[in-house]
Specification:
By secondary structure, the chain is of the alpha/beta class. It is 40% helix and 23% strand. The two termini are 26 Å apart.
């Protein structure tokens, strides 16, 4: 069995099993995700988002000798010191990259026939050199890739990781116009795909059903669950404190993650004599939320933590919050919620999203229902026994998301997909 070292970040190395030379399912596997980005520094290095770590790629290197990735790229060069913390460097002979023209930076780019044509040329080249294709939806490139695969009789598997309608509808006024169109397109392509892997249990399946073979398998990385962590959480809940930390994970640049809702709730709780502080983790410009918190006169109760590398740094951040509050209108997986559950953290989320697959009904509320959210937070703070119950429940449920469980489900599905490669030869 061949072992290589893949360098995915400064001071970060992992052994990744590339697979037995005689046993791999695919010689050249192509991974296409038009919503992911390639970043380049001024030294000529290329980077990808930190969620694409060695554990993530292991699931594909277990079935393929080499993996190519096809991400969007605006060819921007950024100083290396600005990208090393957030992004992982690509430095592996087994990973090659293909760049797609940026098509999400404006409505004009999104609708540009020229950019679509150039992306199609890139996709044709990448797909022709592979013997199996993993396509993530929703993305414009993903839909183009499906058409190319069909025309060239290349076996492909669709991974459904989001809801095209919700992402566009809550993004902007232009998005509201495009949402119904993209929703129907995505439904059509998933309906007639032969192999579909959903990252939800039922949420995405109900919105985008398929006639093909499908499974639900969360795209989350929980390598192990510390048996001592729940006791530390219970001790944390038992402590007497003057101020409670309410955490929220999500981009600051979008309106649908619920930052405004949480700030309004903190204001209401403060007026009732309950001291809480918002702690925001995620990319984006905090300026507008700083202005809004000053307007509410709670600016001293808001902390912006920026971006942390996926893994231990994020888990440590979760350990420091008392309740993770996710008032989001758009969520198809709930990766942050599952990570919080593995740390025994109490979580409150929205019932109209995929979070309803992970949380107890009593911890779910309708988006924008500020009063109900306030009551839920207040109940946890006042009733410590109830908060402990939520912590225990989350911790126990997190075990079903361990990599040792999900990897087996995913691998069994990949073996079924392999049959398509054999029959297409």
């Amino acid at each position: 069995m061949e072992i290589v070292i893949i360098y995915l970040g400064k001071g970060y190395t992992d052994n990744i099993c590339i697979g037995c030379i005689e046993d791999y399912m695919f010689e050249r596997l192509l991974f296409i995700y038009g919503e992911a980005r390639l970043i380049h520094d001024t030294n000529g290095n290329s980077y990808i988002d930190s969620i694409f770590d060695s554990t993530f790629w292991s699931r594909y290197f277990c079935i393929a000798k080499t993996v190519s990735i096809c991400f969007r790229d605006n060819n921007e060069r950024i100083p290396s010191e600005s990208v090393e913390k957030k992004w992982r460097i690509i430095d592996c002979k087994h990973i090659t990259t293909y760049s797609l023209f940026e098509s999400t930076d404006s409505l004009h780019a999104f609708l540009s026939p020229r950019r679509k044509m150039l992306s199609t040329i890139t996709l044709k080249s990448a797909i022709s050199e592979s013997d199996g294709v993993i396509i993530r939806l929703p993305s414009m490139a993903g839909k183009q890739a499906i058409n190319v695969c069909k025309k060239n009789h290349k076996p492909y598997l669709v991974e459904v990781v989001g809801d095209a309608y919700a992402s566009l509808h809550y993004h902007s006024s232009y998005g509201k116009l495009l949402a119904p169109i993209e929703y129907l397109r995505m439904r059509f392509q998933i309906k007639y795909a032969k192999y579909v892997l959903y990252v939800s249990e039922n949420f995405l399946q109900n919105r985008y059903p398929t006639n093909g073979i499908s499974i639900g398998c969360p795209d989350v990385n929980i390598e192990k669950i510390d048996s001592n962590i729940i006791y530390k959480r219970i001790e944390k809940i038992s402590e007497q404190k003057d101020t409670y930390i309410l955490g929220l994970i999500g981009s600051l640049d979008v309106n649908y993650r619920g930052h405004k809702i949480l700030l309004q709730v903190i204001k209401k709780l403060h007026d009732e004599g309950i001291s809480c502080k918002a702690r925001f983790l995620g990319p984006g410009d905090p300026k507008r939320w700083e202005i809004y918190s000053r307007k509410l006169n709670i600016n001293e109760r808001v902390e912006f933590c920026g971006v942390l590398p996926a893994g231990p740094a994020v888990l440590s951040w979760i350990d420091d919050v008392d309740i993770l509050v996710m008032p989001t209108k758009v969520e198809s997986l709930g990766r942050a919620v599952i990570e919080a559950m593995s740390r025994g953290c109490p979580v409150i989320g929205t019932k109209t999203t995929a979070l309803n697959e992970h949380l107890n009904d009593k911890c779910l509320f309708m988006p924008d229902d500020i009063d109900t959210l306030k009551k839920m937070i207040k109940k946890m703070i006042i009733n410590k026994d109830y908060m402990k119950k939520c912590a225990y429940e989350n911790y126990s449920n997190a075990y079903k998301y361990l990599n040792s469980v999900t990897d087996k489900v995913r691998m069994s599905f990949f073996k079924i997909f392999e049959e398509e490669r054999k029959t297409s030869k």
